[in-house]
Amino acid sequence: MIETRHVTTERLDDLADLFCTNRYTEKCWCMWHIISVKAFHAGGSAGNRAKLAEIAQTEDLPVGILAYQDGEPIGWCAVGPRERYKRALTTPSYKIDFKESYQNVWLVPCFLSRSDKRGMGLSRLLLEAAVQLAQEHKAEAIDGFPFASGKRRSSSQIHVGFESTFVACGFAPISRPSGSRVIMRRVILR
After folding, report:
1. What does the pLDDT look like over 67-87, one tens digit per residue?
2. Strands (E), the chain
3. Domain chopping of the chain, boundaries
4. Which of 69, 93, 102, 151 could form a disulfide with 181 if both were Cys (CB 3.0 to 4.6 A apart)?
5. What fold characterizes domain 2-187?
6. 21 burial class (0-12, 13-18, 19+ CB within 10 angstroms)?
7. What is the pLDDT of residues 118-173, one digit of tens each?
């Protein structure tokens, strides 16, 4: 059975266990969408890990969701208020007009499934848990900016997810900033 848990400071060691199974996440620590490129590269793995730990310690909200199988972490998604992901807000793949009627919008910028656990529906399970977490915190909507359906990417690029997963979880496209990316939204509260 697979279960999900919110990631706060007490689960950071579990997150480290999962991240060390992937050469990209071991370096990134999900800081790519949060801090500047310069700070990201200057911090390296240790600095990025410390920055995520700092966010987990100073914010009242979880930094993401972990999926567990038999007590072992096998999947992750980052999720939180859109303002947390400052760098993502300025990227061409998530460029939308933020002058809107929603005040509390959350974002799911990335996923990770352990390579031997892919194909089990972990991304969908994690995305459903992310929607539930956002709903518990009175979010009005939740966004993602996955790859558009039919677009193939390397394993180093699939971290943003796929349009089909978001559609299966009740998200709808709100913008297509490029031929390969789509901005998806699920309205939660109105």
Report:
1. 999 999 999 999 999 999 998
2. 2-7, 64-69, 72-81, 105-113, 141-144, 172-175, 183-187
3. 2-187
4. 93
5. Aminopeptidase (3.40.630)
6. middle
7. 888 999 999 999 999 999 999 999 999 998 877 565 555 678 888 999 999 999 99
